[in-house]
Amino acid sequence: MGMSDPAPRPMTVDEFLVWDDGTDARYELVGGQPVAMAPPAATHGALAMAVGIQIGMRLRPPCRAISEAGIRLSEHEDTYFQADIAVTCQPLKPGMVPVPDPAIIVEILSPSTAQFDRGRKLAVYREIPSVQEILLLDSTKRCAELWHREDEQSWVVRDIIGGGTLRFPSVGIEIPMAALYEGVL
């Protein structure tokens, strides 16, 4: 791209969802611009899988855990994130992309993405009215940040380091940290 080329026109989420760059790269939409996601490290994938399994086996229908979950905010027409795991208790329809009314969002933090996930993404996730818990899991050490919505305006965060139990009151489940990190870290 030359110096005088105009910046690409910002994309809307609807345009982004049908856009294809012709590669297998995965993207998120940030402020109207597609941003490529780095391929996840093996520990990242193992933790995401463990969380999906541990949450999934404890949930009662109609609630489901969804991996690589599309998250959009109705008020932000230019932002679409892909969370590692989300939980919804809404019915899913064929072809549906964004997760409807996510209750829980889980992000695995890697050194390269931690700042963005903990900053911009967390701020957006907390604006979604349906979201009750947000779990940020460290992929380099046994460490979790579990955000819980108290009411419309306020959130409480618990740092869980080493052992301990993750509690998700919105769906009535608890998961021991050991179940997630066993064999990973």
Task: Give a verbal description of the structure.
The chain is an alpha+beta fold and 185 residues long. It has a single domain, classed as tt1808, chain A (Alpha-Beta Complex), CATH 3.90.1570. It has 4 helices and 10 strands. The strands form 3 sheets. A 6-stranded mixed sheet has the order 3-4-5-6-7-8, sandwiched between helices. Helix 3 links the parallel strand 5 (102-109) and strand 6 (133-138). The chain is globular, with a radius of gyration of 17 Å. The model has no long low-confidence stretch (mean pLDDT 92).
List keywords for this structure.
4 helices; Restrct_endonuc-II-like; endonuclease activity; alpha+beta; Uma2 family endonuclease; globular; hydrolase; 185 residues; nuclease; two-stranded antiparallel ribbon
Rg for CA atoms: 17 Å
For the termini, the CA-CA separation is 43 Å
The total strand number stands at 10
- What structural class do the secondary elements suggest? alpha+beta
**Form type:** globular
